Amino acid sequence: MNARLRIIKTALVPIGTGETGEIALALAQAIAEEVILVGVVPISAGESLSAGAQAAGQVRKRLLALSSPASVRFKSTVIVSERPWEDLKAIIAQEKPDLFIIEWKNGHTTCGIPVSDALSTTLCDIVIVRGAIPVKFERALITVRGGPHAELAFQIGMGLHSKRLDVLHLALTGAVNDAPFKGLKHILRQMPEVKLRSIVTDDIAQSIFEESKRYDIVVMGATASKNMDISSIGPVAEKQLRESPSTVMVVKTRRPISEAMFDESAGAQAISILVDKWFAENTYNADEFSDLNQLMALKEKHGATISLALPALNEEETVGTVIATIKKALMDDVPLLDEIVLIDSDSTDRTREIAEDLGVPVYVHQQLLPELGVRHGKGEALWKSVFVTKGDIIAWIDTDIVNIQPHFVYGIIGPLLLNQTIQFVKGFYRRPLKVGDKVQAGGGGRVTELTARPLLNLFYPELSGVIQPLSGEYAGRRGALEQATFFSGYGVETGLLIDVFERYGLRAIAQVDLLERIHHNQGLEALSKMSFAIIQTVLRKLEARYVPAIIEDVNKTMKLIRYANGGYFLDVEEVAELSRPPMASLPAYMERHKR
């Protein structure tokens, strides 16, 4: 259902006469969303520019023929020049491509561009390619030693979408410092579709040459050394370009080489490759699942049962519409849901009465499992909804949604029915901020952007692609949820997301665009307490990874600044984010569900 991943947004390819540029174009089309073609006719020094007129006409015809796909466009002006690289640099500066791809033959790049000139640019990343038409991608090998160019080699290699993709890590015999590879190694461990091998050798160039015989294409970085001229391709890469039987791509990043890129921080940029791949493959749109008969067929195929739990606290204004809308569309018209239950947090208005009148079972979470003590908070309600529901899949949506539609539910269920690898699905949406009777576009999600996402980027960068980690619309498989720790308050969403990631990996998480969600936003004081609880949650999750019991030394009371009678004063409130153990650890749960 998802679009094919394109690692690179824009690639620029120079096209000359004959077949010049076709290998580069084939590679560019494989890895880039858009390809820009530039015609180049080099002429000899002292020769009249008019001598290139006939060749320029031939190149224009080639550009028209090669740019038939919508994703390929060309510059109407063909460069005719003694020094075409200077003109190309101006076009690169104007177009700002992510990648410049140029062909190599017999020790020289095509279109009269010296290798040293192309490699010395910092305007964009560079790929030098040597091969034959047609270019095959069946078996691809990425060779890495670490350092600044290895991440780009891996990024481009991923974009080839080959049936077999191997990563070969090479180290010199006797080498003691392998720090530059550590960051990339961390990413590769989370990508089971990539086979990682390591070789210790006395001759890096010869080892790559021997390995390349078993592959259609080899992707490698130019030699990166603190003491090497940046315009040099390096002896290892040059041997492969001259002698390897495979198509060879040598890449060079535009990022400057620095001392830091050779220590243990090297490879930090590689995390974006993993996140970009996940974002492209695991981000859905609710419209993809609008065919409810198709979803029913998937449900029946897997023999799954589905529960919807609705957490509520004083939502009499909206809860009736939420229940009636979802019940009619997803139970009465099409039986996608097997049950709907309301998990109430001891409302003092008519919330429970409205739900009961609509035929929905109601539970007050403070009355469930009383032997464990009574706690307040949405997380507590969600945890206990795992206890009372029956479905193999459990979905939650908030009951304060003003613009409720069935897609809020079937959108988060769809990926779980479609892909059995996925364990947990988060919804995301545009969040207008409703203040009184007025709606401010894009004003919602303040805690998400100011607290949750910065913390995830800092400590769990793999989750940095999750658009709205705090959304109240999400679903998961019972087998995963019953093993998860639930925080009792505002930290429940953050805790669940991290828990599923640590237990099952990034590929087990998906997100779905639910378009727009309108609800009543909370005031700044409530948001401040929410942020305080989320910070505690992340610290608690970090205990297992870093320092045990770090949270025990953290203050759990919050000084709230208040204003009354013409003056400010401090009010102290405890905001301690407690957690509940996995539901599967409770004998009462195991007995109820016959686990």
Summed up, the helix count is 19
Described by strand count, sense and barrel closure, the largest sheet is: 12 strands, mixed
- How many strand units? 27
- How many domains is the backbone divided into? 3
Q: Give the CATH topology of the largest domain.
A: Spore Coat Polysaccharide Biosynthesis Protein SpsA, Chain A
> What is the distance, rounded to the nearest whole angstrom, between the alpha carbons of the first and last residues?
34 Å
Q: Which overall shape is indicated by the principal axes computed on the Cα atoms? A: elongated
Shape-level CATH architecture of the largest domain: Alpha-Beta Complex
As a percent range, the share of strand residues is 15-25%
The CATH superfamily of the largest domain appears as: Spore Coat Polysaccharide Biosynthesis Protein SpsA, Chain A
Overall average pLDDT = 87
Structural class: alpha/beta
Low-confidence stretches: 259-266
Helix content: 25-40%
Return the CATH class of the largest domain: Alpha Beta
Q: Oligomeric state of the chains?
A: single chain
| Spatial extent as radius of gyration | 29 Å
